[in-house]
Specification:
The structure is a single chain. The protein is of the alpha+beta class. It has 6 helices and 5 strands, in the order H-E-E-H-H-E-H-E-H-E-H. The chain has a 5-stranded mixed beta sheet.
């Protein structure tokens, strides 16, 4: 009986011990379950946040892609504009270079013309240096050389026949013109304002034209100046150089002007081509 009682006590202790161990395991398991539940909820929250962040990033990425596309288009436009500007700059540079070259060429022609006028002036002054200022004057003006011969050097009063002294002066001038064939010559006849009307001359204008023509004939027929480079012109009383109220003024106005200038064909041709 005693053995049976002891065995019962031992079995009770074992059962009691078994119950205690099962409770601890349960508590541990329950704690794990709650931890798992908490971890699952945390992961769910984290996943939701990640999805929101991804959606925001995707939206931002799409916006950046659109901006990049626009920027690429703008860059292409700017590149095209830059290329066009570069081409225009090249054209402008080439045009500017051509213009500068033309300006230099024109300036060279002008300098050449000025030198010709200077040489012509010196030649005419040397050829006519034996005559007094009352008989003739020589001047340079506006790229031309003017020789103003008084009527008393060339003609008798009211007449248009060149006298001996006038022929001598025209002969010396012809020597210059025959050496410089690229010279254009205009012969202008001028009178004072005293009216004239004769059987030969209708008025001062008529007299001035016939006097200019007489000078042309002496230069071309007597001294061989090329007729193609010389032209007569009558101004009458309408281009005075002095006051016609005095005898001295009238005397200055009664003159024949021989106007000489180098031909401008080369200069005109360059201007036409540009």
């Amino acid at each position: 009986m005693r053995k049976i009682a002891i065995l019962s006590i031992v079995l009770g202790c074992v059962l009691l011990s078994s119950c205690v161990v099962s409770k601890k395991k349960y508590e541990i398991a329950e704690a794990g379950r709650w931890a798992a539940l908490y971890s699952r909820d945390s992961l769910a929250d984290l996943l939701g946040q990640s999805r929101d962040s991804y959606a925001a990033l995707d939206k931002r990425c799409n916006g950046l892609l659109r901006d990049t596309t626009l920027l690429k288009g703008s860059i292409r436009n700017y590149q095209t504009l830059l290329a066009n500007n570069q081409n225009e700059n090249k054209k402008l540079t080439a045009s500017l270079s051509d213009r500068e070259k033309t300006i230099v060429e024109l300036q060279n022609v002008i300098n050449e013309q000025n030198q010709k006028v200077k040489n012509l002036l010196n030649s005419v002054q040397d050829a006519l240096k034996g005559f007094s200022s009352d008989e003739l004057t020589v001047r340079q003006e506006g790229g031309k050389v003017y020789v103003a011969m008084s009527d008393k050097l060339l003609f008798e009063s009211g007449k248009a026949i060149v006298n001996k002294q006038g022929k001598e002066a025209l002969g010396k001038l012809a020597e210059v013109l025959n050496k410089q064939t690229e010279i254009e010559v205009l012969i202008e006849g001028h009178t004072d304002n005293v009216p004239i009307k004769t059987a030969v001359y209708q008025d001062n204008w008529d007299l001035s034209v016939i006097r200019a023509t007489s000078v042309v004939r002496i230069l071309t027929e007597t001294y061989g100046v090329n007729p193609l480079q010389i032209q007569p012109c009558g101004r009458g009383e309408y281009k005075p150089v002095a006051d016609n109220e005095s005898a001295e003024g009238k005397s200055k106005n009664r003159r024949t002007e021989i106007i000489m200038a180098p031909k401008l064909d080369k200069l005109f041709k360059m201007l036409e081509n540009n």
